[in-house]
Amino acid sequence: MRNPSFFAALALGLTSTGLMAQEVTIKVSHFLPPNSNYQKLVLEPWCAKLATDSGNKLKCQIYPAMQLGGTPPQLVDQVKNGVADVIWTSPSYTTGRFPYTEALEQPFVLPPGGLAGSKAMWAYYTQFATKDYVDYKMLAMFSGSGVIFSTSSKPLLGLESFKGIKLRSSSRSAARLVTALGGSPVNMPPAQITEAISKGVVDGAVATWELVPAVKLEEVAKYHIEGPANQPGFTMNPLVMLMNKARYEGLSPELKAVIDKNSGLPLVELAGNAWDTATVDGRKKATAAGNKLLVIKPEDYEAIRKASANVEQEWAKEVAPKGLDGAALIRQARAIGAQYLK
Q: What pTM, to 2 d.p., does this model score?
């Protein structure tokens, strides 16, 4: 018969093993450099909060700039298949895969601000787009703020100025917008924008202020054009943080609670504020480089809006066979967005 001290030691060992089993490191992958606004102002603070709230039982290992391999459009499969535990990407990179979300990409739907656009997107997601993400644990959906037109040789201040211009486009909706305005869209990931402009492959980019310092866009673009602040943005890029569903379900109840506490609206607001900060920083960076920051006139804004009306109509026709009422979804998204306009 073993003595009591043996059982006490055994119990202590089992307890220690149980505690050790609660220590989890999640792999987080994204497509921008480690000095990007997303990593510095969103991801790193979020990971720090997870560690603090879990007593250092839940930590992040961050893999920026696609260090786990693949391309940005493949991130949604990487997290679904467990290559990464958490990813940050844009649903716009995988056309047709998240159809309910695509209503948010359509031209002139949501407010251009980071926080305002993010709150509008989250409200739309919770009401209309949860079906898109049944294979994932949704952590947050937020806005990359409204797009700007960054060009190297001439500003795009009116409808006629878009004729024949080659612009990097971030999504199918952005590409269709460029086409509707008379330009030629070129699809490419953010990391390739600066080189493409410097080599004359494109004349500029449909981008965001956050991308200006992230990819050193101010070094090759002389002009940055945005719409009126009190009007819906030219188009928007929804951004999502998704977690592998099985990885989340495998966590202890305590660690799930930490994830839940720091997801949803709190994470949406963290990201939205970060993008507003990035907009200010991007403008400063461009100004310091001698770039010109321009706001399109209201009458030119309206002309562009009218010229691109067919973009959302084409999308609504495309999603109809999937059982979606695209026109109704856009109306709902626009109505939600109107609540957050200044």
A: 0.90
CA 8 to chain centre: 52
Q: What is the mean pLDDT of residues 185-197?
A: 93
Please, which pLDDT band fits residue 3 given cuts at 50, 70 and 90? Answer: low
Instruction: Assign 239 a pLDDT band (cuts: 50, 70, 90).
Output: very high
Contact 122, 147 (CB under 8 A): no
3-state secondary structure the chain: CCCHHHHHHHHHHHHHHHHHHCCEEEEEECCCCCCCHHHHHHHHHHHHHHHHHCCCCEEEEEECCCCCCCCHHHHHHHHHCCCCCEEEECHHHCCCCCCCHHHHHCCCCCCCCHHHHHHHHHHHHHHHHHHHHCCEEEEEEEEEEECEEEECCCCCCCHHHHCCCEEEECCHHHHHHHHHCCCEEEECCHHHHHHHHHCCCCCEEEECCCHHHHCCHHHCCCEEEECCCCCCCCCEEEEEEEEEHHHHHCCCHHHHHHHHHCCCHHHHHHHHHHHHHHHHHHHHHHHHCCCEEEECCHHHHHHHHHHCHHHHHHHHHHHHHHCCCHHHHHHHHHHHHHCCCC
